[in-house]
Amino acid sequence: MKINNATPTPIVNNPIQSTAKTTKPSFKGKVADFLTLSRAGTMSRNLFIANAFTFLLGSRLITSRDKDEKREILIRDVPTIVIAVMGVPVIGEIVAKIVQKKTGFAIMKDGEPGLIAKHIFQKTKVKEVADYGQLKSWYKYDENLTSGFKGFSERLAGLGDKVSLKKIYSALGGDIAEKLKPLKDNNDEFLKEVLKDKNLTKSLEKALTDGKNKVLKQAEFLKTTTKIAGFGLTLAIIGVLIPKLNIFITETIHKNKKAEKEQTEKV
Amino acid sequence: MKVTSVPKLNYDSAHNKTGLNTMPNLTGKVAKDSVSFGSVAGALKDGTSGIFKWIEKKGFFVEFLIVDTLSMIVPRIWIGLNRDKDKIGHYNYKAGAEEAGRECLSGPSMNLIPMGILALASMAKPSSHMGRETIKGLTYNMDKILEKTKTSEILSKQDQLDRQLADALFDDAFGSSSINKSQLAKLKDKFSNLLIEAKGLKGKDFDNKAKEFNAHIELINNQNKKAPFRADLIDLTTGVGKEDKTTLKGIELIKDFKNYSKDIVEKLSKQNFNKTGFVEDAKKFISKLTTNRLNLKTASALAAFVAVGSFLLYLPKLYQQGGLSPAQESAMRAEGGANENK
Fold it and tell me: Residue B22: which residues within 8 A CB-CB, separation 6 or more?
């Protein structure tokens, strides 16, 4: 259950006897979460992996014709299934963390921990890469924002420790970047100095209102690099590394067997 | 403190925002110095971001299909064809064909079969398409309306019920926000109007209405004292507990509202209720429908699991050819076996 942070909680004064069951974590609830199809119709991640392991792997193992095929299936398919489902997001998250640290842009948000994170690593909160819609909300200024440029900037600054407003706004380039250069690095002091200069604030607002502004484009591109890394590495591991490793192992085992046979024949 | 003048907050202001919706800019208040990267590198950056935006929009299926095709189907077929090519003297067609059969059929079917099952379930009972929490939330708000209903006649008027539900959803999400009362009333009016208007629309018209609704949600959220984490999200209470909430995007809610209205509210309005005790009867009726839809969701997922499983179990019979496995053949060649099946 995700809660939109800034919208205030409606106060329920008269708790009404609702016919909808309240969501207390129970076994039945957990089963219901597991047996879920997404809005698009695909199986949930855990359901997909469970299905693949049970049927894909299971069937291939049962109908395999010999020991070699069985071994090939295990070496090739077990890591493949896991990486196919989780590779792109997990690699993306690792790359995103590095990108955030290096560039000062925020491209990650809190997310629900998966089974492994929750039960093995005991995490209650994890960071996942934000989607493009979220990036638009963060990096495109809306003139209807009641909290104004101050609220907009404070929201950005609050997204992470390494977020640097100076670096982000400097991505606009041109005159604005020049004006921002002499300002302080620390987010709070930077914001104070910017707000003092009314013209600078106005020009920042104007530049950031554009749906195609350079800051948004840069943030989107940074997220895209995490996707490229995710896809690229996943493709390389599943498509080339694992199959080649698989064939190599088969050949090695049997070359050794052949050498052994020759040894015993010699004796 | 930023003072927003009243004209900015009316209906047309939604159209003044640059790049936020597909409708043409009515007042022409566009940032004329719209910046873009403007160079080859920039265009390339834009292009790649565009591709991945499209992939993200389509969801897990497309992402998985790309990973599956590029990392499994194509490379494995190629490696299979080339397996022991030096030893046989030509492409290893047997290995290649088996890889092709297995990979092309397993990956896509694991997604297409569940998608087909969900489509069937949604055609039968439209409410089974939305999230569990969303059905619970809509029913929770529906119950609140029933509690306030004075006579059983109102229950037969679906339009009135829909309107009340739309209003209730607005109050649920934005009732205790910091926006002033008169402004709030205007926003609520448009909110409910959009939801009701969308009920009768389909296809492109519906999509446009959904975008308009999404923009309106953003407008409302941006009027909070603190900048919202994400402007196009709306909260929904699902139960009496403090944690019983869920969040969805504006474009999702408008679709779910339409399905809920068509599926559950319409059925409620067609029922006959006694003049006395109708509140309890109506609530029981809705509760039964809600539970039924929730169970249908679970059943669909289970059916998908079993259907995909059955197909995968049967699959090897479709691609396995006679004789030894390509692995065994390869092993024999490595050992230097004389009789190899070509």
Answer: B208, B211
Asked if residues A219 and A105 have their Cβ atoms less than 8 Å apart, the reply is yes
Contacts B315 to A, Cβ<8 Å = 59
Of A9-18, B3-12, B112-121, which range is least confident? Answer: A9-18
Query: Which residues of chain B neighbour A250 with C-beta distances below 8 Å?
Result: 327, 330-331, 334
Q: Does residue B163 contact residue B157 with C-beta atoms inside 8 Å?
A: no
Residue A226 Cα distances to A136, A139, A216, B12, B58, angstroms: 17, 18, 16, 38, 18
Q: Give how far A11 is from chain B: nearest CA, Å.
A: 7
Q: What are the pLDDT digits (tens) for B15-67?
A: 444 434 444 444 444 444 444 546 788 888 888 899 999 998 888 889 889 98
- Structure tokens, A258: 């052949």
Compute, in degrees rounded to 10, the torsion defined by CA atoms B19, B24, B25, B26: -160
Residue A80 Cα to chain centre, angstroms: 19
Whole-number Cα distances in Å, B29 to A209, B9, B33, B68, B162: 11, 15, 12, 46, 36
Phi-psi category of residue B22: left, alpha or beta, with phi > 0 → left and psi -120 to 50 → alpha: alpha
Q: What is the ipTM of this complex?
A: 0.79
Confidence of residue A59 (pLDDT cuts 50, 70, 90): confident
Task: Look up tokens 């498509």; give the residue.
Answer: A239
Q: Which of B1, B29, B33, B35 best probes binding to A when mutated, by most A CB atoms within 10 angstroms?
A: B35
Chain B residues touching residue A17 (CB < 8 angstroms): 143
Amino acid B75: pLDDT: 79
Rounded to 10 degrees, the C-alpha dihedral B114/B118/B120/B121 comes to: 140
The mean pLDDT value for A17-36 works out to 63
Neighbour tally for B213: CB within 10 Å: 25
